[in-house]
């Protein structure tokens, strides 16, 4: 399953080869533990978009992976039902649809356990997402966006059609926020829909003890609509008929083993909507009644998971950040009968997340970033003892065999893309068994090393260093300082968008440091940079750069810096505070902190750290790069997408104007239809081509070559 390139030793020499590498995401394990499925994205025949399909991986690692689905629309979000059927999301057309039907949106599909054609279980005009199933019953819940007042697919479709025919695209907001990442909020909001039984696997219901699902209009049993598949064999209940802004956390939900309850994350507004927090609600799937099981005025709760007996929930608890303190996370155990909770990891100086239970309910697995890795841990519910199962790498999508014999996950590292692996649940700091799958890379154009740097305050700054092949004291490589986003993040996993191996293939050494504010080094390490982005994070980056330049394989006379989001902010700060670099690339970057704080999609979050710019302007004045624009002399490449609502396009536009009117040598790469990231294959290639050309001009001394398609 090794990726084959077009005659090259590795797939990083040509962007076409790089874009063609299969990309894995998501993992699902069948109830009997014999089937493991992942979603694989590959280029479509026209090579203009990535197309996803479901592949089956052998849990034993003996057989090659095999493709299960194939359609132009693609398939994703795999999850198994108790029956062994594989459920997934796809926008493939309904075989029973008429020729004048609307363009299909992602629906809920089922692939029989024994093979055969997939069948459509549920469709909605706004599509479905967040598929979850019950462990002990063939029931499923999904999230579907519906317009206010819509009771079913038919009425929702009518409301959408009326807006379209009237030429109305306007949105009326009565609360905050109004946008998220790259989409406008409203008029449709996420609803949680519960299928009491998957069609063809519906258990008998006892009307004396098991109430029928509630209809939107009242307490009458919900009736399947005529445009829902299999109307005679499945009951569909809307458990959140009053969905609105509180539904923004709606994709974060879990279904109890017996299918009687759903735990869901709900957003709550404070201070008239100026602040927001999340809580966990428990919804009865029969009556629709709900109650809050985890809430705090100064904290957020999320990622709920039911214990095997359904008596407990485990989730994360995050304290709200403030002007003085960064956030902190812990695992939280909720006793549903006693209606109480307690901290499971009070002494862990890391930020745990994505919890899932051991099969016997005695403990929970979780992941947390630690020292540039993202290992798997297990905590004992009774004693609180914590065991680290893995040493190196980044782990996600944990799947636990119901008999407790194995633990499966996707693993990546900065020298390996995501691959499915098997772990021993009793192992400690183990190396996983890698399972055959698409997307393996046989050779890299360099080596990966670690660098530790001591700062003036005796803090160790850890960095990854990618060295290109052939770099040595006789032929030193130019250095590219690459700064991560976040800022509460870490260089700890393979990244398709920020891939240092593409730079290594072109002869650059790439330094990937974790400065102050980075996750995985303890709470005090975050505090070192809290509220002073231009302070310790900057000096940490310069110290890491100095240490890298002392190595004989690095050419200290040829250097560049780049970053995106917070990394873009730091690139701008570097440009305004030193001329040591030959070129700077800044992507989706913050330039004017005051302007950014009111225009971003989550102003309340950033205001906690920096304060109200009208009453507490100190941190804005001290840390905003635009205040120091006159200091810039380094050539800059500015990159921004118009659909970026996290760091709105105004930041890039103002930076570009400030550079031009000061005569700074600069270029502006603008994407009218991309967001905070650059997601389409063609635009991603142009992004890299432009960066390559800009760095070649200013770092390598080569003539500027404008990308052909620009």
Describe it:
This protein is of the alpha+beta class and 710 residues long. The chain has a domain at 446-698: Alpha/Beta hydrolase fold, catalytic domain (Rossmann fold), CATH 3.40.50.1820. The strands form 9 sheets. The chain has an 8-stranded mixed beta sheet with strand order 31-32-34-33-35-36-37-38, sandwiched between helices. A 4-stranded antiparallel beta sheet has the order 1-2-3-4, with no helix packed on it. Strands 5-6-7-8 form a 4-stranded antiparallel beta sheet, with no helix packed on it. Strand 33, helix 3 and strand 34 form a beta-alpha-beta unit. Helix 7 runs antiparallel to helix 8 (603-610). It is globular. Residues 202-227 have low confidence and may be disordered.
- What is the residue-averaged pLDDT? 92
Shape: globular
Using the coordinates shown, work out and report the CATH topology of the domain at 446-698: Rossmann fold
Binned strand content? 25-35%
Report, as a whole number of angstroms, the end-to-end distance.
35 Å
What Rg do the Cα atoms give? 26 Å
- Strands, total number: 38
Sheet with most strands: strand arrangement: 31-32-34-33-35-36-37-38
Helical content stands at 10-25%
Give a short account of the largest sheet: 8 strands, mixed
CATH class of the domain at 446-698: Alpha Beta
How many separate helices?
A: 11
Classify the secondary structure makeup into a structural class: alpha+beta
CATH architectural category of the domain at 446-698 = 3-Layer(aba) Sandwich
Low-confidence stretches: 202-227
According to CATH, the homologous superfamily of the domain at 446-698 is Alpha/Beta hydrolase fold, catalytic domain
């Amino acid at each position: 399953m090794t990726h084959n390139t077009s005659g090259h030793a590795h797939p990083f020499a040509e962007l076409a080869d790089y874009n063609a590498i299969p990309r894995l995401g998501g993992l699902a394990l069948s109830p009997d533990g014999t089937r493991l499925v992942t979603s694989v994205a590959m280029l479509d025949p026209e090579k203009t978009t990535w197309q996803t399909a479901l592949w089956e991986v052998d849990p034993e690692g003996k057989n090659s992976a095999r493709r299960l689905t194939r359609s132009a629309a693609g398939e994703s979000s795999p999850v198994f039902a108790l029956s062994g059927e594989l459920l997934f999301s796809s926008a493939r057309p309904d075989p029973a649809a008429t020729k004048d039907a609307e363009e299909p949106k992602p629906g809920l599909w089922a692939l029989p356990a024994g093979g055969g054609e997939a069948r459509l279980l549920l469709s909605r005009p706004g599509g479905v997402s967040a598929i979850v199933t019950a462990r002990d019953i063939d029931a499923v819940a999904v999230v579907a966006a519906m317009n206010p007042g819509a009771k079913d697919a038919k009425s929702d479709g009518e409301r959408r059609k009326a807006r379209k025919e009237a030429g109305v695209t306007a949105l009326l907001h009565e609360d905050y926020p109004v946008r998220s990442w790259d989409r406008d909020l409203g008029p449709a909001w996420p609803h949680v829909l519960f299928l009491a039984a998957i069609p063809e696997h519906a258990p008998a219901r006892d009307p004396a003890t098991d109430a029928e699902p509630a209809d939107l209009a009242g307490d009458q049993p919900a009736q399947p609509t005529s445009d829902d598949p299999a109307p005679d064999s499945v009951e569909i209940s809307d458990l959140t008929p009053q969905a609105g802004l509180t539904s923004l956390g709606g994709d974060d939900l879990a279904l109890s083993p017996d299918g009687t309850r759903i735990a869901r994350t709900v957003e709550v507004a404070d201070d008239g909507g100026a602040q927001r927090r999340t809580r966990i609600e428990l919804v009865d799937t029969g009556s629709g009644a709900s109650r809050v099981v985890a809430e705090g005025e100064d904290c957020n709760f999320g990622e709920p998971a039911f214990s095997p007996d359904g008596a407990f929930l485990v989730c994360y608890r995050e304290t709200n950040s403030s002007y003085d303190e960064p956030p902190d996370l812990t695992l939280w155990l909720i006793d549903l009968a006693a209606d109480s909770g307690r901290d499971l990891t009070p002494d862990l100086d890391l930020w745990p997340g994505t919890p899932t239970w051991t099969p016997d309910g005695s403990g929970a697995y979780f992941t947390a970033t630690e020292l540039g890795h993202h290992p798997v841990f297990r905590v004992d519910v009774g004693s609180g003892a914590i065991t680290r199962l893995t040493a190196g790498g980044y782990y996600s999508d944990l799947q636990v065999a119901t008999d407790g014999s194995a633990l499966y996950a996707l693993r990546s590292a900065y020298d390996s893309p995501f691959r499915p692996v098997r772990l021993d649940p009793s192992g400690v700091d183990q190396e996983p068994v890698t399972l055959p799958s698409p997307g393996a890379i046989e050779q890299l154009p360099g080596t990966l090393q670690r660098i530790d740097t001591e700062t003036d305050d005796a803090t160790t700054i850890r960095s990854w260093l990618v060295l290109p092949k052939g770099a040595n004291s006789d032929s030193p490589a130019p250095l590219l300082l690459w700064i991560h986003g976040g800022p509460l993040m870490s260089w700890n996993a393979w990244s398709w968008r920020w891939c240092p191996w593409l730079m290594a293939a072109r002869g650059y050494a790439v330094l990937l440091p974790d400065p102050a504010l980075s996750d995985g080094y303890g709470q005090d390490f975050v505090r070192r940079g809290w509220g002073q982005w231009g302070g310790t994070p900057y000096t940490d980056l310069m110290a890491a750069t100095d240490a890298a330049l002392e190595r004989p394989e690095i050419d200290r006379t040829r250097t560049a810096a780049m970053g995106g989001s917070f990394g873009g902010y730091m690139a701008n700060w570097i440009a305004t505070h030193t001329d040591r670099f030959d070129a700077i690339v800044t992507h989706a970057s913050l330039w004017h902190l005051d302007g950014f704080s009111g225009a971003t999609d989550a102003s309340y979050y950033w205001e906690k750290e920096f304060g109200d710019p009208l009453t507490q302007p100190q941190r804005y004045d001290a840390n905003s790069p635009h205040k120091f624009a006159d200091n810039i002399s380094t050539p800059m490449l500015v990159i921004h997408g118009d659909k970026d609502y996290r760091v709105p396009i105004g930041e890039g536009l103002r930076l570009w104007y400030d550079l031009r009117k000061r005569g700074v040598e600069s270029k502006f790469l603008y994407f009218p239809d991309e967001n905070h990231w650059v997601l389409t294959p063609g635009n991603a290639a142009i992004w890299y081509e432009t960066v390559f050309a800009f760095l070649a001009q200013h770092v390598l001394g080569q003539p500027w070559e404008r990308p052909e398609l620009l």
